């Protein structure tokens, strides 16, 4: 498995983590956030961060449980109640290359936590 460690590319709003993975391997994109038990958060993973929610939602949770996902191919790892909602993509292919965003809905205006990745899938040798 060839997996390069993330490096940061900075944008105006938040850093974008760049990952490179070899075709056929699995990748886990990490998303962690602080949790207040009285205020469980909604979380989404998508192919980008939209203005109010994820763009092209892949998986979303609501107060501790997955409520929707576009495919069984994507899964959540970690514990939503403990503030860890990693996106796992098995058997990646070139079509998986591109942008990914984890967005945690935090009460109030413009408080959402966002973690963005650029995934590059390269051909195996």
């Amino acid at each position: 498995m060839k997996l390069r460690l993330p490096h940061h590319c900075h944008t105006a709003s938040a850093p974008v983590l760049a990952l490179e993975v070899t075709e056929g391997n699995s990748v886990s994109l990490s998303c962690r956030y602080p949790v207040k038990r009285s205020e469980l958060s909604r979380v989404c993973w998508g192919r980008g961060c939209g203005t109010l929610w994820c763009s092209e939602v892949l998986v979303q949770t609501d107060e501790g449980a997955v409520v929707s996902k576009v495919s069984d191919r994507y899964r959540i790892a970690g514990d939503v109640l403990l503030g860890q909602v990693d996106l796992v993509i098995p058997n990646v292919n070139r079509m998986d290359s591109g942008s990914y965003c984890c967005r945690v809905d935090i009460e109030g205006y413009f408080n959402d936590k966002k973690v963005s990745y650029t995934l590059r899938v390269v051909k195996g040798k």
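The beta strands are 3-10, 15-22, 27-29, 42-49, 54-62, 65-69, 75-77, 86-89, 98-104, 113-122. Residues 1-12 have pLDDT under 50 and may be disordered.
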